[in-house]
């Protein structure tokens, strides 16, 4: 292990030990499965752009990826259709509102503004080039596996739990259709979006996704170029503006790095040209971001002086 990574491993352990005592927040409850995950699980992983891995405590626990899937499908659509098409059809502005806000849509003539809120993510799914729903889904799942360098699988349990409770997202899909911002059959797009949220990753898988973004789109573990280097800044910009929803500004102010959270408790942070940190812990703040995850990543990135600004 390099000297830098030896120091990093020590700092990561300190961050984890400190965060473990934080009892703030609660699991997501609007998706029944997520409410049942043990709240005290805490994992932290780092993958460098050279493929070195550091993993601590529950870094091997498989959790539902949820909203972090949005950055992967964004990458796929950027590859298939290019940055201009995505920008015109979905947008690139922070909403400043919750991830499932209908008001944000209504205020902008039904344009989702960003692929990282639920509306924009479903529109992005609908842009994946495919002949039918199953082919669209297989492409998304395959791309998740390539980015994680791991066989990513759908959890039937999580998917079932989400598909039977996602009426709000189905309503958003229909609103998108009504404003001409849905590019496949709307409820099919909602179904595939719900599946992409219901796959299981551990913190090492997730940090590998981030390390691919940190490494100009080339997965440092498999050596495969998965996203063209020219598309990476678009993904990182979206993450910086909207990755933690209505607290993205606070995250930029405190951490100064692109991040992405999921209500399953995952939190990814990309340190360009260095690597990525992935945290997992199910207790969330009111905005849907892991509390211990934010605490650990803040601690490590401050100690390592990784703030980009
Ligand atoms: O669509 C939803 O509401 C969930 N499947 C994902 C939301 C989510 O992860 C928001 N993130 N922090």
Describe this structure in words.
By secondary structure, the chain is an alpha+beta fold. The chain is 48% helix and 10% strand. It has 2 domains: 3-66 and 199-303, 3-Layer(aba) Sandwich (Beta-lactamase), CATH 3.40.710; 68-196, Beta-lactamase, CATH 3.40.710. The protein has helices at residues 3-19, 32-35, 69-81, 83-89, 102-106, 118-127, 133-148, 156-163, 167-178, 186-197, 203-214, 232-242, 248-254, 291-303, and strands spanning 43-48, 53-57, 63-64, 200-201, 259-261, 266-271, 275-280. The model has no long low-confidence stretch (mean pLDDT 97). The protein is globular and about 55 Å long. It binds 6-diazenyl-5-OXO-L-norleucine.
Extract low-pLDDT stretches. none
Provide the residue-averaged pLDDT: 97
Give the full name of the CATH homologous superfamily of the largest domain.
DD-peptidase/beta-lactamase superfamily
SSE sequence, one letter per element? HHEEEHHHHHHHHEHHHEEEH
Number of domains: 2
CATH class of the largest domain: Alpha Beta
Enumerate the distinct ligands.
6-diazenyl-5-OXO-L-norleucine
Described by its quaternary structure, the protein is single chain
Helix content: 40-55%
Main sheet overview: 5 strands, antiparallel
Query: Number of DSSP strands?
Result: 7
Strand order of the largest sheet: 2-1-7-6-5
- Shape type: globular
**CATH architecture tag of the largest domain:** 3-Layer(aba) Sandwich
Distance between the termini: 28 Å
The whole-angstrom Rg is: 18 Å
Structural class: alpha+beta
* Range of strand content: 5-15%
Tally of DSSP helical segments = 14
CATH topology of the largest domain: Beta-lactamase
């Amino acid at each position: 292990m390099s000297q830098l990574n030896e120091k990093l491993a020590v700092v990561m352990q300190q961050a984890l030990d400190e965060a473990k005592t934080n009892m703030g927040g609660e699991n997501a409850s609007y998706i029944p499965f997520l409410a049942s995950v043990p709240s005290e699980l805490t994992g932290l992983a780092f993958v460098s752009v050279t493929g070195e891995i550091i993993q601590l405590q529950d870094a091997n626990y498989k959790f539902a990826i949820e909203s972090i899937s949005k950055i992967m499908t964004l990458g796929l659509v950027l590859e298939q259709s290019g940055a201009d098409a995505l920008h015109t059809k979905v947008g690139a502005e922070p909403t400043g509102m919750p991830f499932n806000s209908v008001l944000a849509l209504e205020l902008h003539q039904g344009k989702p503004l960003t692929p990282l809120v639920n509306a924009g993510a479903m529109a992005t799914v609908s842009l994946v080039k495919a002949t039918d729903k199953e082919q669209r889904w297989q492409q998304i799942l395959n791309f998740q596996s390539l980015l994680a360098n791991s066989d990513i699988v759908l959890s039937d349990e999580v998917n079932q739990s989400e598909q039977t409770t996602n009426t709000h997202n189905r309503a958003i899909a229909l609103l998108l259709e009504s404003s001409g911002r849905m590019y496949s059959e709307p409820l099919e797009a909602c179904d595939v979006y719900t599946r992409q949220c219901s796959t299981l990753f551990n913190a090492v898988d997730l940090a590998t996704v981030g390390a691919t973004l940190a490494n100009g789109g080339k997965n440092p573990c498999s050596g495969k170029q998965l996203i063209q280097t020219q598309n990476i800044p678009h993904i990182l910009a979206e993450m910086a503006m909207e990755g933690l929803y209505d607290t993205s500004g606070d995250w930029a102010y405190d951490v100064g790095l692109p991040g992405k959270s999921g209500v399953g408790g995952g939190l990814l942070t990309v340190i360009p040209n260095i690597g990525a940190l992935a945290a997992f812990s199910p207790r969330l703040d009111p905005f849907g971001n892991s509390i211990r995850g934010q605490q650990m990543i803040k601690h490590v990135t401050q100690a390592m002086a990784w703030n980009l600004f």
